[in-house]
Specification:
The chain has about 425 residues and is α/β, with parallel strands linked by helices. The protein has 14 helices and 17 strands. Strands 1, 2, 3, 4, 5, 14, 15, 16 and 17 form a nine-stranded mixed sheet that branches. Strands 6-7-8-9-10-11-12-13 form an eight-stranded parallel sheet.
Length: about 425
């Protein structure tokens, strides 16, 4: 199947974000085939008129607790300790498998609606095999490209067996949904448990995504030393909330192939620390953006890009003034894809990659007459600008509407689930 996207304002991101100009994009069998002006017609091709629209790669969210879509803004002013108590201590235990399904489906569709075509679902609600089944099912049914970050929620001694079961049951063949080990890590659990998490990742040849470096400088240094001393740094690892690492720690992470996920709004509002975006990138670490949780943060990439840009540029003494809108757009696309292990698959419009593409309207008062399309994407665009979204060449949103789901029914299910979960914990 051929799709021709015609006459768009094309923005690509690899190796660095650049405005290609008015051009076409040809998609063959779900992959980018060619990008350029005046591409020839293809008999039988589906043509998408992108005149006046920005055509760019889809966004990548490298760390989202997607199951929490039904408790949006449940505690918008809480601290990190409040999050642990209210969300994980009180609300999470009340989640049934069907609640996980409702949250994951609505959360994944929220991503697609906002132009996020790739998601790492950091899922720490795996209380039973049925919870896991429904989480994976929802991701698959949504149509989003995703990495399911499996965080074992049962007895510690069952971690390895259950992780292998999940891998063999749901991820034996390639597809839009793949797997990572979402590790609690040495700053949260005991050393033996943490060792088992990395052993599971090594045995299954999976990457690790872990909350490390977000508590204190002492805790960050101790956790990284644990990984180093136990020979675990060779496993591809994403450090979430890595704000408290010193420069020599960041260098070690860079030298051992690690990556970083920054949740700029949650990190500031929950008191996790000042986002490490510029410092991590200066150390040579692939650095990405993530929502974390809509329980106390917005769920779209436009908000994250603006927050990350402003926070880095606003460092005292002008230290962040070299950080640009192109840097933050790269974090939101190709760099995010690299962080979640899909840099060869998505994140740019390079021929041969999967056609994960977003078309943004510019015929609105908030986007009209933009002189720099990249600046406009970062500083001016919002979810209302997302007109069309493709994942692997499949159109999942067009003319501002999601195509393959009864959104009203999805929202009704989410609302019912949210009412039951919150009532049970009150």
């Amino acid at each position: 199947m051929t799709i021709l996207i015609r006459n768009g304002i094309v923005v690509d991101t690899e190796p660095q974000p650049v405005v290609v100009g008015t051009a076409d994009v040809r998609i063959e069998d779900g992959k980018i085939a060619e990008v350029g002006p005046g591409l020839p017609d293809v008999p039988g091709a589906e043509v998408i008129d992108a005149s006046g629209m920005i055509v760019m790669p889809g966004f990548v969210d490298s760390h989202r607790h997607t199951w929490q879509a039904g408790i949006r803004a449940v505690a918008p002013d809480m601290t990190f300790q409040g999050y642990l108590q209210r969300i994980l201590g009180e609300l999470a235990p009340g989640y049934r498998p069907e609640d996980v399904y409702a949250g994951n489906l609505a959360g994944a569709l929220e991503c697609l609606d906002a132009g996020i075509t790739t998601l790492l679902d950091w899922s720490h609600v795996q209380f039973t095999p049925a919870h896991t089944e429904q989480a994976v099912r929802a991701l698959r049914e949504s149509g989003i490209r995703s990495v399911f970050g499996f965080c074992h929620g049962g007895a510690p001694e069952g971690l390895v067996e259950e992780g292998r079961r999940v891998h063999d049951t749901y991820f034996g063949t390639p597809g839009l949904v793949s797997m990572a080990v979402a590790a609690l890590g040495p700053e949260i659990v005991g050393e033996e448990h943490a060792l088992d998490e990395w052993r599971l990742a090594r045995d299954l040849d999976l990457p690790v995504t872990v909350h490390l470096g977000g508590q204190s400088q002492e805790s960050a240094a101790r956790g990284l030393a644990f990984l180093r001393d136990n020979g675990l740094l060779s496993t591809p690892t994403t450090y979430v909330h890595a704000n408290h690492y010193a420069d020599d720690h960041l260098k070690l992470i860079a030298d051992t192939g690690g990556s970083v996920s920054v949740s700029p709004i949650d990190e500031m509002t929950l008191g996790i620390g000042y986002p490490v975006s510029g410092r991590a990138r200066a150390a040579g670490i692939p650095t990405s953006l993530s929502v974390d949780t809509v329980s106390c943060a917005p769920g779209d990439m436009f908000s994250l890009m603006r927050a990350a840009f402003a926070m880095e540029r606003g460092r005292p003494g002008g230290d962040g003034l070299g950080f640009t809108t192109r840097d933050v757009l790269r974090m939101a696309t190709i760099e995010g894809a690299e962080v979640v292990g899909l840099g060869d698959v998505t994140g740019s419009l390079r021929p041969g990659k999967q056609a994960d593409v977003v078309l943004l309207r510019t015929d609105t008062l908030g986007m009209a007459a933009a002189q720099d399309p990249i600046g406009a994407v970062v500083l001016n665009a919002g979810t209302d600008a997302v007109d069309t979204v493709l994942v692997a060449g499949r159109v999942v949103k067009r003319d501002g509407r999601l195509l393959h789901h009864d959104v009203t029914a999805v929202l009704e299910s989410l609302t019912e689930s949210a009412a039951r979960v919150t009532a049970a914990s009150s």
